[in-house]
């Protein structure tokens, strides 16, 4: 049973927990201090103060028991539950914190300091030794527009804990893909170019396969069964598509196809070994960046400063296509605005399920038809760009 996918739906559901708590405390206090109540009361001033303080404490206790403190951080008890495999998605806590702090009068006046270049961010991170030790890989190897869009995510406690876990795994075990390839998806497919998102789950966990792109393997490596079924479907859908002799999907990435796994690392020969460690929260944030990078009121931490909602020259300005194959990928897409974006769902291309709805789904054709309506005749993806006849294993 694959690990449960965690949705980005919570990013789209604002909450008023903090304001409700504050209003509740204020209501309790006002019910005690009204002039009418003061006339009828025989309590001493000390007793009245004790009641007011008790009401405030009860409100705080209620907030804590629901897993949210006054500052929006999940309580220790809630964090423990959310971080367990069977717990609820901790992604909701990320959005809850954002929603609460952004509406707080006390914090709304504090400017958010954001780096505008890779070097600026590198200097900012270098000011904290505990950060640079964990984030040097991201600063050095992540595509710059992704790096700047996700910079706030990198310094959150869950991501720093995740990096500590992955770093320790790399020191003591074999981990795929190689460190320099973990973020290759971000280098081959810049954020501004994304038109199609294909969501995978784990990286391939056998030797020499994973290189940072979902479903893809390097040239010279045997084509995995799921990719073979993808090729078969494309051959049936796309006129002139010749099944390649290799499984390297780098050219798709260069043409605007984001090939994103939910977990970006895995222990060798142990599927799902790095699930529920924090990668799902990070990749959910990646998807949120894609969907909101050009939204009129998108949060500054999620949209490049150069993006504008009316910039039709940007390939993804009018929406992107999500290909969600299998329950895991469908769950990751929950909450995406299907009026702005096209969400194509079907069974997974795995040999175990391909005949139950993947083969014959016409997703590649539907994606191009939708993109051409949105962006004109040249707006589709050149699925044939992989290049037939190149050296590689065909078996």
UniProtKB/TrEMBL annotation:
EC number, UniProt record: 3.2.2.27
Stretches with biased composition (Basic and acidic residues): 67-81
Compartments, as annotated in UniProt: Mitochondrion; Nucleus
Biased composition (Low complexity): 22-31, 55-66
Active site: 202
Keyword DNA-binding on entry: no
Signal sequence residues: none
Residue span, Uracil-DNA glycosylase-like domain: 187-371
Family recorded in the similarity comment: Belongs to the uracil-DNA glycosylase (UDG) superfamily. UNG family.
Function noted in UniProt: Excises uracil residues from the DNA which can arise as a result of misincorporation of dUMP residues by DNA polymerase or due to deamination of cytosine.
Protein name in UniProt: Uracil-DNA glycosylase
Organism, scientific name: Kwoniella dejecticola CBS 10117
Upper lineage: Eukaryota, Fungi, Dikarya, Basidiomycota, Agaricomycotina
């Amino acid at each position: 049973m694959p690990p449960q996918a965690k949705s980005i739906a919570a990013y789209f559901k604002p909450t008023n927990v903090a304001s409700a708590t504050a209003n509740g405390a204020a209501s309790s206090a006002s019910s005690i201090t009204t002039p009418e109540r003061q006339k009828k009361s025989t309590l001493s001033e000390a007793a009245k103060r004790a009641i007011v303080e008790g009401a405030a404490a009860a409100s705080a206790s209620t907030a804590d028991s629901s897993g949210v403190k006054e500052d929006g951080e999940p309580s220790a008890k809630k964090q423990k539950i959310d971080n367990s495999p069977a717990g609820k998605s901790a992604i909701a806590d990320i959005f809850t914190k954002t929603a609460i702090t952004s509406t707080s009068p006390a914090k709304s006046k504090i400017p958010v300091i954001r780096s505008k270049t890779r070097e600026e961010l590198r200097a900012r991170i270098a000011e904290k030794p505990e950060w640079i030790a964990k984030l040097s890989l991201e600063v050095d190897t992540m595509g710059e527009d992704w790096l700047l869009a996700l910079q706030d995510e990198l310094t959150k406690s869950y991501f720093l804990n995740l990096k500590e876990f992955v770093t320790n795994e790399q020191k003591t075990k074999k981990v795929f893909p190689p460190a320099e390839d973990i973020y290759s998806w971000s280098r081959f497919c810049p954020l501004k170019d994304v038109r199609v998102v294909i969501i995978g789950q784990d990286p391939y966990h056998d030797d020499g396969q994973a290189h940072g792109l979902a479903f893809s393997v390097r040239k010279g490596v045997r084509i995995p069964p799921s990719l073979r079924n993808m090729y078969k479907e494309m051959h049936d859908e796309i006129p002139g598509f010749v099944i390649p002799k290799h499984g390297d999907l780098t050219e798709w990435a260069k043409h605007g196809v984001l090939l994103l796994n939910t977990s970006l690392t895995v222990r060798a020969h142990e599927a799902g070994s790095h699930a529920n460690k924090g990668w799902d929260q990070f990749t959910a944030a990646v998807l949120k960046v894609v969907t909101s990078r050009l939204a009129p009121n998108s949060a500054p931490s999620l949209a490049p400063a150069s993006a504008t909602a009316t910039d039709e020259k940007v390939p993804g300005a009018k929406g992107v296509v999500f290909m969600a194959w299998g329950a895991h990928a469908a769950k990751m897409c929950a909450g995406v605005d299907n009026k702005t974006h096209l969400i194509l769902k079907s069974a997974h291309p795995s040999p175990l399920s391909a005949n139950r709805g993947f083969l014959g789904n016409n997703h590649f054709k539907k994606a191009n038809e939708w993109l051409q309506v949105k962006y004109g005749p040249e707006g589709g993806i050149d699925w044939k760009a992989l290049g037939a006849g190149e050296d590689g294993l065909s078996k």
